[in-house]
Design the sequence.
């Protein structure tokens, strides 16, 4: 065992379980129960980082999420994690850690050369220089290379994450003494309780002071029995290694549970997620988040070996590590005294310099009895040492004012702890809008004792400023009883004796920056924020330059911007700013506390929504059939639709050509299952349709279908589809594939917020139906082979009719509608029969050489007919009139419809609008780029006026040439009816630097009279 | 204007313990009256004051701010600057801004760290690629730098991007604007404040407007928490609360205010040297000079004035970022926050005169105002000084919501069939 190890009774490391680990390639020993930080300290490692700006040597300061310096790269390869705080990494056998700063080496950091010129690099210096925009990228490159701590992994994450939803009556954040007592009381009252603690075991500060006394027994014994009782209560769940990182409105606590990170990689269970995000909605939230000790600000206070005083105590009592042999403690309050006594009893030489002249006599007696050398009225002017602290120069302070009145001794030491008081962990309380109160007596921003009981948020213990153990426990009991009664419960029994052996507290000294007798900025650098190298002088400078709002000070100096989120630095910063500004601390206020309390893994936030399950892939019921036939797929919204069905040796163009000709001349079949389908019922459905569609629905009889255009409030087309009348009060609407959810939400919004009086019920049935479109002159013959109970004759089953019947032995709805302009039947069956019916149609169509086709052929066929695709040929700026679809607008409907009023707007009604047209290139083999801009002249020197753009463009196998749809300003008037190709009908389409000559024509290229679909 | 920020001044002041620095701007007490009052000391408002003073010779100007200057969306955005918009009106306005960005550091004698590291807009579907092609062609014809890149080229330029064909939404290509980039958001507010202050502009913080004095259809002054301030010209640039201010003048703004969230990772070594945006998976990211991934999320669908949003939005955005960059799975979110964005029906701003003579509004920038900061201030200053819109903001008139002449940047598009 290293000489820094001390076998402390009550320590939480298991000296019988030695472990090995490595740091920067060197092997070290530790024990089960260690953190990486405690193990490194036990090995004598002091400097393990270099500072962000000046490259100064840095060591461990804290014991938990407040740690600003010891940021580690843990593990390598795919398992690597950047920026973990060594204080939060549980040691396991074989752990591999690396430094994240110090280049080229920790011993010699290039930035430390820059640090020599630090006086020329005050806060915000970069705003004042590097002003040449041309050279800035070069400067910036250097700045970027110098910045950053750990490295992102370069490989995909081998581990998984998940989310869990919980509902609790009481969620308690923090498993220290107060949190445990609150959980016991609520648990005994029978409430459903969740207790969260970020550490590997409950206990909080009790783990660092196992010998304090609660109700006559040792704290360690009290802790053991409390945890034991909680574990025995079925209504209480204790989640350790679970960090509550955010509190959102309506008492939603977000917490991350670490499930695997404390295990050697080889021991991690493959089925177990690495971390789990708990979303806990609670009736009552109890914040028992405790407090974090705040260091004092003095010269060279960043030298490795200088810590918070409580960290020295924790490392000693909890981890069995005496960080130094000769320890100097600097304090302004009583909190360090127990630790001072413990360190002295553990064999350290301890000097305790208290800035106060009047100290607590009871504590003084105890520490002197333990052998502590107590000096009162002294502050540290500056520390000595560079890579490890070697001592400190003390100065005599005025009894009242924070000024130097005389010199003091120089004290040698190899570890130094300071305490300027405790800063309650108020973060969660503030996340959802709470503001902390400044308590001038306790020198802390606290959660008010009453919390926000009206919203169900309570604070107990140190977070409210009750720093003494006995006071905290008594307050916790009182507050928890109030909470219980608010839920109609009472604590069944007394909590027992909560008496401790602490002396009554003596007031702390109000001191944050220990003076060194020199003007700020003239003496040694005194750091407020270690991670961002913000010194007290930087705060002075910010104020001098009129960055006086605390938010400006923060943003100008970077105070509190680090991965520790200012847990050690913020209050010191606020206080120093208040002094400079001549304001009180509450007048200065705090910056905003935002989630996350401590950093949260991206993977945990995403949970299962990563990789293949980022979003579900939706497939039609016929997917297996398409895969078997070698389809290529196109993502459309969440769906994957067959794009084309290549046969051996075919590319997209060859396949599409074959598919198109089959549908035009023989028979094709397409899977249309993905179209959105909404089932509408109720006596007012017709009226509802009248209002949400541009056209009229009053007359549509059962057995008939109609195409409808849906408009937004601006009168612009937002979706389209065919809706069928099933019965007088029952309709089936289809939407675009990608628009299904949007339309459903849209309809519900209008129904619920504007027309709740209409009797309409909507159900999304997209997934319930499978749809096969049989398309082409021979489609009737194909269908007839497997459907005998529907009269398919042209006179009995007309275009835009639908019929109920049996197809391939399955109940079906057959629609005679067409998106290709050909005779076509869309067969709708229960989705479970989709694959069966598809195969039956393929069988029935074999003798007609039925050809499956995908979305690309569908696009070509519909473009040949000038049928629009919403979202491709429209972009939210096209009215039905712009699309030359006045026939789909029922201006005479008695009640208005969505978008109608906008038609009267001067611009919407005016001339020169962009309108849908067809375009033909001079060279029939040139297929224009979709997205080509339509311009008037071949000259493309910017700025060139644009008249519109190409929305759809294909090679038409039917016509043996290219065709395109476009929207063009005043396009309808430009259409050449007789192909004269001169004047206004002659334009250019520009894409990728080239302009092609085009003629504006009608968008209907094939069968302009529409005869084919009516046969 | 004297350039008192330079390497030389850093050197000389550094020798004297940095005690010789002057206030970056002057904090003023409100005077009884001004020629022009700007409401809102964000980037846009301060830029407006700066250009009013610099380009239009107006000297007696106040900028009122209810909190601290630059504390609204200027302090909360993800700092992306680009001008590759679809419609001429928008593209030309943002391009005007981009050109000003390119000289802003030198103009203000304040390094706003405008870093032209390029902006990629990824395409994941065939329709995305059609839209990209259309936008890039339009940009080229408007004289804006833009290009279409295929997936292989995107991968070459952003090696860490997941361009695998087996991704849930594979990357098919991207548009790229090389002149786009990022800037240091706070510095923009401070730089404009300092430069405006040098022209004598009064910057008055902690001064909230509580009422408007309007007589005979003209603005006469403002009621504020620091007293009455007379002015016959008032420009309101108060993102997040524009409709609240407009209501004081009896104007119903076509605006909804929504929370918009963003978050940053912990600081890491440089790994992403450009800006990547994806509408389809809905996330965008860049890496700051300090090493943090700066990530923007979508807006919350409900309306709100609290500067915080719903956690599921953050979760979805993290998932989107991992879809683009799976290797960030083990990186960690350090801090999240929210701001309030004023959104218009066509996702384009309103820079306009109003029915009240002398009262002007510059608002409705939605999620994209930061990139326009200098351009917005520049044309708004023109509008106020001349009582007539600059040619570049004429189309952004309030009247368009009556005439229907919308500049629909988001459209109702999306994926169909």
Sequence:
């Amino acid at each position: 065992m290293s000489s820094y190890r001390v076998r402390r009774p009550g320590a939480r490391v298991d000296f019988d379980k030695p472990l090995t680990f490595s740091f920067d390639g060197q092997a070290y020993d530790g024990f089960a129960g260690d953190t990486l930080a405690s193990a490194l300290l036990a090995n004598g490692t002091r400097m393990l980082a270099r500072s962000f700006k000046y490259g100064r040597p840095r060591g461990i300061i804290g014991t938990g999420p407040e740690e600003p310096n010891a940021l580690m790269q843990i593990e390598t390869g795919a398992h690597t994690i950047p920026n973990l705080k060594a204080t939060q990494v549980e040691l396991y056998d074989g752990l591999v850690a690396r430094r994240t700063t110090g280049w080229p080496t920790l011993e010699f950091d290039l930035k430390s050369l820059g640090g020599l010129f630090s006086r020329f690099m005050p806060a915000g210096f970069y705003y004042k220089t590097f002003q040449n925009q041309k050279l800035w990228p070069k400067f910036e490159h250097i700045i970027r290379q110098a910045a950053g701590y750990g490295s992102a992994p370069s490989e995909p994450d081998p581990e998984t994450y998940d989310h869990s939803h919980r509902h609790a009556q009481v969620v308690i954040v923090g498993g220290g003494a107060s949190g445990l007592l609150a959980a016991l009381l609520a648990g005994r009252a029978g409430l459903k309780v969740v207790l969260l603690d970020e550490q590997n075991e409950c206990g909080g500060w009790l783990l660092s002071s196992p010998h304090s006394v609660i109700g006559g027994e040792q704290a360690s014994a009290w802790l053991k029995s409390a945890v034991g009782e909680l574990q025995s209560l079925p209504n209480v769940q204790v989640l350790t290694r679970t960090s509550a990182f955010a509190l959102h409105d309506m008492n939603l606590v977000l917490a991350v549970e670490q499930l695997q990170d404390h295990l050697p990689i080889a021991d991690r269970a493959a089925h177990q997620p690495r971390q789990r995000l708990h979303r806990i909605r609670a009736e009552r939230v109890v914040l028992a988040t405790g407090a974090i000790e705040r260091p004092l600000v003095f010269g060279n206070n960043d030298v490795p070996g200088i810590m918070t005083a409580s960290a020295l105590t924790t490392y000693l009592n909890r981890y069995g590590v005496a960080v130094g042999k000769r320890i100097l403690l600097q304090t302004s309050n009583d909190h360090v005294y127990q630790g001072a006594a413990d360190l002295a009893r553990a064999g350290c030489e301890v000097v305790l310099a208290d800035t106060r002249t009047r100290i607590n006599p009871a504590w003084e007696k105890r520490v002197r009895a333990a052998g502590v050398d107590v000096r009162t009225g002294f502050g540290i002017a500056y520390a000595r040492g560079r890579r490890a602290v070697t001592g400190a120069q003390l100065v005599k302070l005025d009894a009242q004012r924070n000024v130097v009145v005389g010199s003091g001794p120089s004290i040698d030491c190899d570890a130094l702890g300071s305490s300027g008081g405790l800063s309650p962990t108020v973060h969660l309380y503030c996340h959802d809008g709470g503001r902390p109160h400044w308590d001038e007596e306790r020198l802390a921003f606290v959660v008010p004792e009453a919390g926000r009981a009206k919203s169900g948020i309570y604070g107990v213990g140190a977070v409210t400023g009750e720093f003494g153990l006995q006071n905290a426990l008594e307050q916790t009991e009182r507050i928890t009883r109030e909470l219980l009664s608010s839920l109609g419960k009472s604590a069944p029994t007394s909590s027992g004796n909560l008496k401790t052996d602490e002396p009554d507290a003596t007031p702390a000294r109000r001191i944050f920056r220990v003076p060194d007798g020199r003007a700020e900025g003239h003496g040694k650098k005194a750091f407020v924020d270690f991670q961002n190298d913000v010194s007290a002088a930087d705060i002075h400078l910010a104020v001098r330059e009129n960055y006086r709002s605390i938010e400006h000070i923060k943003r100008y100096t970077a105070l509190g911007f680090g991965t520790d989120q200012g847990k050690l630095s913020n209050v010191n910063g606020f206080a120093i700013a208040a002094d400079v500004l001549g304001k009180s601390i509450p007048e200065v206020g705090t910056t905003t506390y935002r989630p996350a309390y401590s950093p949260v893994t991206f993977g945990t936030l995403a949970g299962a929504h990563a990789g293949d399950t980022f979003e579900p892939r939706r497939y039609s019921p016929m997917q297996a059939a398409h895969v078997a036939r070698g389809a290529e797929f196109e993502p459309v919204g969440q769906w994957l639709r067959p794009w084309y069905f290549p046969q051996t040796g075919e590319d997209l163009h060859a396949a599409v050509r074959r598919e198109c000709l089959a549908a035009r001349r023989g028979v094709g079949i397409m899977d249309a299952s993905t179209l959105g389908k909404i089932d509408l019922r109720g006596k007012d459905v017709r009226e509802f349709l009248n209002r949400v569609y541009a056209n009229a629905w009053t007359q549509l009889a059962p057995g008939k279908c109609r195409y409808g255009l849906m408009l937004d409030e601006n009168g612009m087309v937002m979706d389209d589809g065919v809706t069928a009348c099933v019965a007088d009060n029952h309709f089936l609407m289809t939407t675009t594939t990608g628009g299904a959810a949007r339309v459903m939400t849209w309809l519900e919004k209008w129904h619920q917020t504007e027309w709740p009086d209409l009797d309409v019920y909507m159900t999304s049935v997209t997934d319930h139906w499978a749809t096969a479109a049989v398309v082409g002159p021979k489609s009737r013959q194909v269908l007839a082979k497997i459907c005998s109970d529907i009269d398919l004759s042209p006179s009995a089953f007309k275009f835009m009719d639908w019929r109920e019947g049996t197809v391939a032995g399955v109940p079906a709805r057959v629609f005679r509608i067409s998106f290709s302009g050909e005779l076509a039947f869309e067969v709708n069956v229960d989705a479970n029969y989709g694959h069966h019916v598809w195969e039956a149609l393929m069988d029935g169509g074999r003798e007609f050489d039925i050809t499956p086709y995908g979305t690309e052929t569908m696009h070509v066929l519909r473009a040949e007919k000038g049928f629009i695709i919403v979202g491709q040929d429209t972009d939210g700026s096209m009215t039905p009139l712009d699309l030359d679809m006045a026939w789909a607008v029922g201006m005479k409907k008695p009640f208005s419809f969505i978008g109608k009023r906008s038609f009267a707007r001067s611009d919407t009604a005016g001339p020169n609008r962009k309108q849908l047209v067809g375009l033909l290139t001079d060279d029939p083999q040139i297929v224009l780029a979709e997205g080509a801009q339509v311009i008037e002249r071949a000259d493309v020197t910017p700025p060139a006026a644009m008249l519109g753009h190409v929305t759809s463009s294909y090679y038409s196998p039917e016509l043996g040439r290219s065709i395109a749809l476009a929207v063009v300003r005043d396009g309808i008037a430009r259409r050449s009816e007789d192909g004269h190709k001169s004047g206004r009908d002659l334009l250019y389409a520009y894409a990728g630097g080239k302009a092609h000559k085009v003629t504006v024509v009608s968008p209907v290229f094939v069968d302009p009279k529409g005869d084919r679909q009516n046969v | 204007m004297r350039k008192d920020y330079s390497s030389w001044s850093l050197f000389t002041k550094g020798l004297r313990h940095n005690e010789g620095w002057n206030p970056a701007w002057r904090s003023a007490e409100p005077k009884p009256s001004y020629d022009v009052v700007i409401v809102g000391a964000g980037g846009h408002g301060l830029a407006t004051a700066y250009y009013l003073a610099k380009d239009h010779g107006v000297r007696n100007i106040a900028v009122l701010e209810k909190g601290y200057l630059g504390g609204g969306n200027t302090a909360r955005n993800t700092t992306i600057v680009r001008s590759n918009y679809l419609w001429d009106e928008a593209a030309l306005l943002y391009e005007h801004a981009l050109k000003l960005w390119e000289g802003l550091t030198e103009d203000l004698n304040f390094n706003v760290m405008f870093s032209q590291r390029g902006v990629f807009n990824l395409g994941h579907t065939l329709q995305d690629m059609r839209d990209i092609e259309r936008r890039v062609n339009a940009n080229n014809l408007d004289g804006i730098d833009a290009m279409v890149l295929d997936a292989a080229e995107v991968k070459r330029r952003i090696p860490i991007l997941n361009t695998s064909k087996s991704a849930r939404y594979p990357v098919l290509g991207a548009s790229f604007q090389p002149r786009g980039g990022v800037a240091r958001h706070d510095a923009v507010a401070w730089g404009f404040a300092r430069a405006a202050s040098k022209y004598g502009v009064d910057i008055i913080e902690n001064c909230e407007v509580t009422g408007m004095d309007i007589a005979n259809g003209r603005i006469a002054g403002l009621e504020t928490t620091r007293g009455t301030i007379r002015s016959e010209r008032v420009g309101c640039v108060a993102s997040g609360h524009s409709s609240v201010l407009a209501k004081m003048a009896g104007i119903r703004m076509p605006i909804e205010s929504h929370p918009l969230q963003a978050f940053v990772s912990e600081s890491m070594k440089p790994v992403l040297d450009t800006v990547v945006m994806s509408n389809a998976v809905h996330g965008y990211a860049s890496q700051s000079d300090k090493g943090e991934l700066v990530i923007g999320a979508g807006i919350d669908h409900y309306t709100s004035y609290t500067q915080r949003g719903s956690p599921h939005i953050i979760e979805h955005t993290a998932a989107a970022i991992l879809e683009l960059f799976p290797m960030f799975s083990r990186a960690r979110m350090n801090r999240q926050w929210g701001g309030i964005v004023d959104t218009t029906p066509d996702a384009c701003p309103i820079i306009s005169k109003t029915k009240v003579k002398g009262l002007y509004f510059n608002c409705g920038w939605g999620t994209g105002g930061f990139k326009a900061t200098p351009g917005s201030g520049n044309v708004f200053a023109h509008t106020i000084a001349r009582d007539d819109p600059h040619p570049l903001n004429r189309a952004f008139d309030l009247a368009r919501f009556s005439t229907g002449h919308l500049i629909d940047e988001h459209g109702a598009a999306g994926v169909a069939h």
Notes: Chain A touches chain B through 137 residues (CB under 8 Å). The longest strand of chain A covers residues 161-173.
